Amino acid sequence: QVQLVESGGGLVQAGGSLRLSCAASGSIFSAMGWYRQAPGKQRQLVASIIGGGSTNYADSVKGRFTISRDNAKNTVYLQMNSLKPEDTAVYYCFALGWNTTAKIFENYWGQGTQVTVSS
Questions:
Q1: What is the pLDDT of residue 52?
Q2: N or C: which end of the chain has fewer CB within 10 A?
Q3: Which of 94, 88, 97, 98 is CA-nearest to residue 110?
Q4: 77 vs 4, 40, 99, 100, 102, CA distance in Å?
Q5: What is the rounded CA–CA span in Å between residue 66 and residue 54?
Q6: Rounded to an integer, what distance in angstroms lies between the CA atom of residue 115 and that of residue 30?
Q7: What Å distances lie between residue 25 and 3, 45, 64, 73, 83, CA to CA?
Q8: What pLDDT does residue 90 have?
Q9: Cα gap 86→73, rounded to integer Å
């Protein structure tokens, strides 16, 4: 059974930092990363990383967020610095894992963690 467990969310003041973690298990994973969803807005891709180390960031977080990955532990991290109130959202970890039944890489989701940035 594939499972993604997220941690690290919380309440911080503007300009502060948080570090999110997502530990995946139960499969072989390719891309991993985070989406976020704020009230009244659509889900947005924040950052992603593949096993080889290539990364991708939303323009709104470039220079402030850093994604990294420990392939041996199937764990991905999102270091969030210089946080702004606009970063307030529920952050959902995702990972592409091999589905042995469908014979395809399929997207799996974490439970979500709340990030709140006060002004």
A1: 84
A2: N
A3: 94
A4: 13, 26, 23, 26, 28
A5: 12
A6: 26
A7: 5, 22, 28, 9, 29
A8: 98
A9: 31
